[in-house]
Amino acid sequence: RRYLLFEVISDGEVAKHGLQNAIWDSIYSLYGDTGASESRLWLVNYDSGIGIGVLRCAHRTVEKVRAALACIYSVDGVRTAIRVIRVSGTLKGAVSSTFYCTRTPPRSISI
Predict the structure, then answer these.
(1) Mean pLDDT of the chain, nearest integer
(2) Cβ of 5: how many Cβ atoms within 10 Å?
(3) What is the DSSP code string of 26-64?
(4) Tens digit of pLDDT for each residue in 14-29?
(5) DSSP label at 54?
(6) Per-residue CA distances from 91 to 5, 54, 71 (Å)
(7) pTM
(8) pLDDT at 49
(9) 52-57 and 2-10: which strand pairing?
(10) Which residue in 6, 38, 52, 109 has a CA-CA distance of 20 to 30 Å to 97?
């Protein structure tokens, strides 16, 4: 497993459910049913207030997931881009370090 700490950059607030659908749609459109099932993708947490979240995926599919995230340009009609901040082998490692975020000062994320 790998955990991807990501930032949502958008024109407005993006809801968790809409983001989850956009991620799955992107994975399916790029890699089909087989690729989507191999990725074992799971949205662990997402805070729509600050636009930071954590995705879990299979360790062999990290680059595919990153590519799928890069293809997302809109969520529920809101222009959106997703930037991966960090990839880690543990959830604690993904969220415990200080990281750079364009819209908020560095702080810890509670899961």
Answers:
(1) 84
(2) 24
(3) HHHHHHHHHHHHHHT-EEEEEETTTTEEEEEE-GGGHHH
(4) 889 999 999 999 999 9
(5) E
(6) 9, 8, 24
(7) 0.80
(8) 87
(9) antiparallel
(10) 38
